[in-house]
Specification:
Layout: H1 2-14, E1 23-26, E2 32-33, E3 39-40, H2 46-49, E4 53-56, H3 76-83, H4 98-101
Antiparallel strand pairs: 1-4, 2-3
């Protein structure tokens, strides 16, 4: 995985695109492999719900920032839209976390997430 990401970033640099390209890497789910006596990816425990999310955008993302706020996959599209100068439609779920990536304080960020699976 590291080599593949490295090749992608090297390509962007070689083509002169690295300064104007935002790269987002996110896992699609966590996985429980014996924790809590379970083996699955659809339970409301952190090993199942927490996934990696890395954002690289040298011009717009504060380097080395770690965002402690809870971000969800439905926040990806509004964030990309704001980065592109677009407005998020009112009927779209999720919130842009672009201000968090810039290191700005956001006082009204969510404090909890509701998770449900049948």
């Amino acid at each position: 995985m590291d080599e593949s990401i490295g090749r992608g970033l090297a390509y962007l640099k070689n083509e002169g695109l690295d300064k104007n390209t935002i790269v987002i890497y996110m896992g699609d789910n966590g996985f429980i492999f014996g924790e809590h006596g379970l083996i699955d990816k659809r339970s409301a425990y952190e090993p199942s719900m927490r996934v990696p999310l890395l954002v690289r955008g040298p011009v717009v993302v504060k380097p080395g920032i770690k965002v402690p706020q809870m971000v969800m996959n439905i926040d990806i599209a509004p964030t990309i839209m704001e980065m592109a100068g677009m407005t998020t439609p009112e009927n779209m779920q999720g919130r842009t976390f672009f201000p968090l990536l810039k290191g700005e304080k956001v006082s009204s960020w969510r404090g909890r997430i509701f998770y449900e699976y049948y």
